[in-house]
Design goal:
Blueprint lengths: L13 H4 L5 H13 L3 E2 H4 L5 H6 L4 E4 L25 H12 L3 E6 L10 H12 L6 E5 L7 H9 L4 E3 L9 H4 L5 H14 L4 E8 L5 H13 L4 E6 L16 H13 L3 E5 L8 H10 L2
Parallel strand pairs: 2-3, 3-4, 4-5, 5-6, 6-7, 7-8
Antiparallel strand pairs: 1-2
Helix pairs in contact: 5-6, 6-7, 7-9
Amino acid sequence: MSFGVRDAAPVLPPWIRKQKLRLGELHEIKRQMREGGLYTVCEEARCPNRSECFSRHTATFLINGAICTRHCAYCAIAHGRPGPLDPDEPAKLVATARAMGLHHVVITSVDRDDLPDGGADAFVACLSGLRELPDPPSTEVLTPDFRGEMELVDRIIAAQPDVYNHNVETVPRLYRSVRPSGRYGWALEVLRRVTETAPGMIRKSGLMVGLGETRDEVVEVLEDLAGAGCQIVTIGQYLQPTAAQIPVVRYWHPDEFAGLEREGRKLGLEVIAGPFVRSSYRAEEAYRTLAGAR
């Protein structure tokens, strides 16, 4: 699907145009990932921060293959019918994380609605393998909603990641057009489940702006997240990855992001907001900050 000229995005403002990619750093980390037979969501989703994060030798591993069973309007990850899982993928991830000397490992996944476990057991295998390393890194998972099946969330909680992240992505009004296979209620329930089952585990979520939401709607989402027990929220500008994804409606000004951070603080949330903020951007720093405050 491609969006036509009538849906063209507004002109890029200067605070968006200034972002640069450092290609040398990109290629080096991509090489290490490819040698390990792995994917990063940084590349598959065309994250604008990928060169900065790669320069810090930080990356978010994408497991359960690189083909998603859902077709969200904002996402550049390939969708369709996935192939079988690679049984060696968790071991490859652990070996690559060790070779890269990572201190904080983020693991996410495509949606695998075709699997009975939704791909949850692969998260468990990766976390278990990382814990067995001589110098285990801290870990963060960014999971699917598992179509509201909380037993699958429980499996991952039991594997004890340091941070459990599930993104709400957008405001409830836009779910049907932006995230048609998801449910806002499922997203909140994942976070509530972690809060109730493992109150010592850090809870995190994130959303995009620029898809047509209002400021009041975003603040309402922050209120919902605080009510679900979320602690860290990332908010970033949606940037259309290719012509196949939904266009940007408007670009939020940096001052507006600063205002959302202030609103979050009123609710007791650690909100990290900015034009290029993404859910895994400087994830280790956010984790260390909150963990150290305890």
